[in-house]
Specification:
globular, 15 helices, eight-stranded mixed beta sheet, 406 residues, UDP-N-acetylmuramoyl-L-alanine:D-glutamate ligase, six-stranded mixed beta sheet, alpha/beta, Protein-Tyrosine Phosphatase, Chain A
Amino acid sequence: MNTLDDWLRWQENLFLSAIKLGLERIRSVAGRMDLLQLPVPVITVGGTNGKGSTCAMLTQILRQQGYKVGTYTSPHLMRYNERIAIDGGPLTDTAICTAFAAIDKARDDINLTYFEFGTLAAVWSFLQARVDVMVLEVGLGGRLDACNLWDADVAIITSIGIDHVEWLGDNREAIGREKAGIMRAGRPIVCGDPQPPASIASEAARIGAQLLQYGQDFSSEGIPQPALKGDVQLRNAACVVTALQQLQNRLPVSAEAIASGLACVTLAGRMQRVHNDPELILDVAHNPEAAKELAGWLKKNPVDGKISAIFSILADKDIVGVVETLAMHMDEWHLVPLASNRSMSVEALSEKMRAAGVQTPIHTHPDFQSAWNVASFSAGKQDRVVAFGSFLVVSGMLETLVPQQR
């Protein structure tokens, strides 16, 4: 393979299933690469919503303190390189290709998934760069996710909602049990869900993890307001500060670093304003819990004019739950098809929305450029456009507005 795109296309076809949970494959290859025991602290972040924001806050605070930070997140918005960052900057194509080549040599006859390749590439690259700390975002669930190969010195579960039911279960107790898999005996686990399922506490007790529960063991009182929009971000920040307190012996962090890190943290696609006149907000709300946060922000930050939605969502998501939550805030909808094997036609999406009770106008478009042209042309200075749903909506809008970022 000569380019990063070559490697990624090859990886997508190497494994028969896009998602195959389990740690046996990645453990075998990591052992061959001497990656099983890591010499630096590891912070693992799981949960249904808020993982990306939490990782961004952790990274920024630790950087403000002067630490070299390796951060692994998913999915990416514009470029694959975003997933593997050192001190907030994505790795180069060359660096990632070098990591992939090392993994391919070590794996021999073991087939790895796309996500397993990326996870190993991140950890291997972080060790090559001699980072001081690794922040690893769980991709799916927790117990069987590739990031769970490594024992977290402190783990965070941001929230527990209904998502990925085909993999994790269709109720919060089952999903909580899967996410609790990132806990370790004798080590702290910080839970930010204000009303967690009982499975979180029972799993912590079963294995002997040190559970720190929001609302019981810590709160957001006295936590500096982070720069990210939304009420939930203060709770995410409280989780971050609590987790870092557990590492004070190994990674001391000052109050000044916490305040400055939270004040300057940024993250694309989280109630992000990217255009004025009309105002355009981008958000990756793709499940009912995230939709509630977006709805809450819209209610607290009204506009005098109308609100138009540019919307699309993958077929395996709770479409009705998302649409019902936000329908009352939208005066019209602009639907765009998504380039994914998990997508649905805009006609089918429109039918689901009508069945969910949407009575405002629904327009369909062939692409994001067309949707933005129509929505922005009909919008006045007092109006707002909100593009939300799948991560592919945010990336599609960013590509439309700033095509040179492709």
